[in-house]
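Researcher: Structure prediction, please.
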Amino acid sequence: MVEKHDRIQRLTAFPTRLRHIAPAVRRWWRPMLAVGVLVLATIAVGSMNPYGFKTAATLFLAFLSVAYLASLARGKLRDGFVVVGSLLLGLAALEALAVKSERTSIPVIGKGFQSSKPELGWGAADPGAYPARKSDPRTGSTIYDVTYTIDGLRLRKTDSTPEGPTIAFLGDSFTFGEGVNDAETTPQAFADLIDRRLRVLNLGFRGYGPNQVLRALETGMFDAALGTRLRLVVLTTAPWHAERTACKPTFTLRAPRYRLHGDGIEYYGACSEGMGLALRELLQNTTLYRVAIEPYRQRVDHDDVELYVRIVLATVEIARKKYGAATLVSYLPVGDDYLRGTGFTDSSIIERFRGGGASVIDASLAKERAEGAVIEILGDGHPTAFAHRARAQSIKAFIASEMPDLLTR
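Model: Predicted structure follows.
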């Protein structure tokens, strides 16, 4: 009976407790709602499309939330909210101005094209045909409208003989063929030039650097595709890849990281991890950071270029020792202005590559450019179909001169 009486007392006292809680709820639900909006706005900055006015709008929404909190607070707390709100309003305005000044657009590619990849950071996701379109951010006119086909090996489709000696093209979006159709990439153009007598693979992918190429060969990630008859590795590269191997661009955050170690290099995990990764991804989604800060942060120094050179040389060595394959570097010169202050020149880098056992050809297409050929997609900068074929012709000429037996097999 006593227990039953206690339960009855607790039940009858419950409405009384609710009456005490209600004033606190009425007092604090608006501030808590404002805090919730602020948290959601912060999360939205990190997850939204980084281009356009969305980030500026999110920062302005955060400003409104803080301003409301300031109207409810008193004393030093209110002063703190005022300071934070002023900063948010200023950042929103600067972000909007940065969006107006930025002339960059990102391609829209079919869903499922790209996914996270262990070791490499990212790569092709599922086999299939993916439409890719890029438009001018000012006029809305089409820059390119193409299709990327990913085969069963999760590589860019290249039609060649299914068996026999293999030539593997490795590199970034230049190798992958960003902005052109499957039939217009450098690997496909080369396969066509040799009447598809050799097995040709396109292992390039957009945004990759020599660090991804090296890590893939070290871990055997491409071994199933390469098979046992790899004869030649063709690596398209340029000194501006030193930015990627040094993990400076924000899009390289999940890429493999190497560092100088004695006379060589050592693998050191991902470019950025933990809270550092989250912070840089948040910054990446702000146009203000990309326009005002990132260009200065991406400047390379001597150690950055030295690391880049050593990574390429390590790739040459592993191709020779592990696969018994020669390496041809298709080199894109950058000129003295880019390398000024690093202690390197295009000539000294090429000399290092050749000293490490690689063959090197000039892929600048300077002659074709001087003759008026369009070698870059207007409004984008990636090679045109003409440029891909011209570079494929240079590669074929090298093989015909230095490895003629390969073409006759």
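Model: Residues 2-47 form the longest helix (46 residues).
Researcher: Thanks, that helps.
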